[in-house]
Amino acid sequence: MKQLDEPVSMSCADVVPEENIAYRKVIGRLMPFLLIAFMVNAIDRVNISFAKLSMAHDIALSDAAYGFGAGVFYLGYVLFEVPSNLYFQRVGARATLTRIMILWGAVTILTAFVNSANQLIAMRFLLGVAEAGFLSGVILYLSYWFPSALRGRITAAFLMAGVVAGIVSGPFAGWIMTHFGHDARLRDWQALFIIEGIPAVVMGAIAWFWLADRPANASWLSAAQKQTIVAALAAEHDQSVQQESLMKVLRNPFIYLMGLVYFCIYGGSNTVSYWMPTLIRGMGVEDLKSIGIISSLPYICALGGMYLLGRSSDRRQERRWHLAATMCVGAGCFLALGFVRGDLSLSILFMSVGCAAALSAISLFWTIPPALLGPASAAGGIALISSIGTTAGIVSPMAIGAIRSATGSLYTAFDVMAVALIGGALVLLITVRRPRTEPHEIAKPEIGRA
């Protein structure tokens, strides 16, 4: 079995100078566009958390209905992700990403015209359908251009764009809702959906002309550069082992245990994304600009936390204790929120650190499954782990909304998320032990001493 704590080399020596020239050109062409697209995607996904502050009164939106609407997005996403990926493989990245971005932008704009909770829920489901396959499609797209020696860094940079989006989305939403939509024809939350939906439509149109499906189709690469990239990917493919059958992957209990851990982590981070503005208002902050600025603090902390924790984990060649400790820190901060609710400064401090820990845990988590699953089972196993964890996006907003409606308090809901994070950390420590078998053997859970 591949050692869990074995670091992956990411040095520039992994590619020869001739390849470096070609890859720099690819990075300069593709990555800025994909990073901005992912930021727009992340902003459009969670802007409902800010719109709720005003639209709840206008369309009679209860906390339970809001939680259901936030969760039903993921239902549409999960149901249509596989068909979207099949479409991606059939028609290519350019057509798929163009279709996804234009559709999600259009749905975001149309959400501005809902006038009931049921209509909002329907639009959130459609948004999930429209966005389905974007993230997994981009991850697959990157594998068409970059060998494994570079793919880790490239993928990490792409995912960090989502955290950057969290930093800017709050202040941007607060600015829009403060300066636009204060008349009888257009409300502030309507202006938010319209203004933030337009960039996705524009970028979808640009994608058709800017992206190339594969290196061989890139007119902006020389013939020699195309051949360099194609040859590197072909050599890597020749050395790869055959994929294991789906049934063998499905019978691996380790995958389900890791899916449970990811479910707990994703539930905590998802709670942050959809309920943080409501929590901040509950602390006594009413100004939308201030709510936006405060809501960006956890993402700033998360950006630093992801870098520092990842660096510490690599330097010490240790993964699971870093992840378990991060999850417990997040849980501790969530539990502490209820005890300091009368102190705004302490509430913001615990919220920021707790949310940053929950978000940082995601990047730490994804260092573990690839190290324990060999190449034969990695593709199917990682997809299944991701699918299991993503269902937390369906469950957690609905559960939080129901708890808020029943108790009138978000603090109880954050207590539930804290318990889930602690439970996930215990499953991780009990299940995952330092591997002692041969590389690339499928990991078997060992229940017992961590």
From TrEMBL:
Molecular function GO labels: transmembrane transporter activity
Topology with respect to the bilayer: Multi-pass membrane protein
Source organism: Caballeronia glebae
Name of the featured protein: D-galactonate transporter
Recorded GO CC terms: membrane
UniProt KW keywords: Membrane, Transmembrane, Transmembrane helix, Transport
UniProt superkingdom: Bacteria
Location in or out of the cell: Membrane
Record-annotated Major facilitator superfamily (MFS) profile domain positions: 30-436
Transmembrane segments: 26-44, 64-88, 100-117, 123-144, 156-177, 189-211, 254-276, 288-309, 321-340, 346-366, 378-403, 409-432
